[in-house]
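Field notebook, page 379. I keep forgetting to write these up properly, so this time I am using the form the group agreed on. The chain and the ligand, zinc ion, are recorded exactly as supplied. Prediction of the bound pose follows.
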Amino acid sequence: MEPIASVRDQALRLLASGAVSSRAELVEALRVAPSTVTAAVRRLLADGVIVEVGSGRSTGGRPPRVLRLRETGGVFAVTELDGRHARVGLCAPGGALHTADEVAIDVAAGPDQVFDAVAAEFARLRAAIAPGQPLLGVGVALPGPVEFAHGRVVGPARMPGWSGVDARALLAARFRVPVAVDNDAKAAAIGEHLARGREPGDMIYVKAGTGIGGCLVSGGQVHRGGRGLSGDVTHVRVVDSGERVCSCGGRGCLETVASGAALVRQLAEQGSPAAAVRDVAAAVRDGDPTAVTMVRHAGRLLGVALSSLVNFLNPDAVVIGGSLSGLDGYVAATRGALYELCLPSMTQSLTIEAGVAGPDAALIGLGHLLRTTTDVRTR
Ligand SMILES: [Zn+2]
């Protein structure tokens, strides 16, 4: 006998195509026992993928129940790229995230190879989570500056081979559905804004991961700036930075001292076998005094870089997301520097804290962008 999962997938495909609409028709089309179809349909109903609507025309006996795909059938496929990983997920047409996982990529291999890997993961997730459901849109968050209006990558320091790439056109040609392309920090800021529930007011969001990205959300809107390139806090020059050469060609940028890449490098220079931010986190958890001091110094320099922005913009909240936001001491050191360097009138009502949306912030943001910028909502 065939495994139930396979019958479930085949049944879903048949129902999605409109070729069949009842249990009896499924039994006939799939040539399996009625009890097998009943079990598969029960699972599809329980998963909320299909619904039973009214009764079909009777051919003599009891009228059959009509089975249909749920009206909100279909998914958005979304991904956030980092240098070495892609976080990949599926969102409901309403924008809610269904599922997410990670695959290894090498962003330096260029868009074609990276999008091949992401497309394969989209296909795997769709087959597992939403078989037979149409793809309604694709969203991609990139770790570099994006001209949002055109979906084009502009001079990314940490994405060799991507400068000038029209990511939106490439993705639209590949998937033939509506596409949203955004900078990772901006997508994550949107996700964080949504995850906060109540209106958080004006918010400076910082994504502190391998690199450091920023975004201002003001009046419920992402401030994108003239070309859409706003928020590039990573190349703000800070004092006490050691004047190290940055990936942008400048010296003493925040990225060279306060980013995940900088912490990994600093820890490795001290002789620790650190290769990723999780190694820094492990060293901090183990109470390694060098790592603890480095993380505090990095958080403090982030606060230094943000202090003039806080004085200038008078936000209600500074929210720090990304992998470094989970490191003990990083957010606290940022908070300490902001309290020390900003006007008391600015910090009196300022919330400074780690994000609540977690590692899926950017995927949630992309789901929202697709829901609000595409015409496709339901099938
Ligand atoms: Zn720089």
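OBSERVATIONS:
- The longest strand covers residues 97-104.
- Residues 1-5, 375-379 have pLDDT under 50 and may be disordered.
FOLLOW-UP: compare against the apo run.
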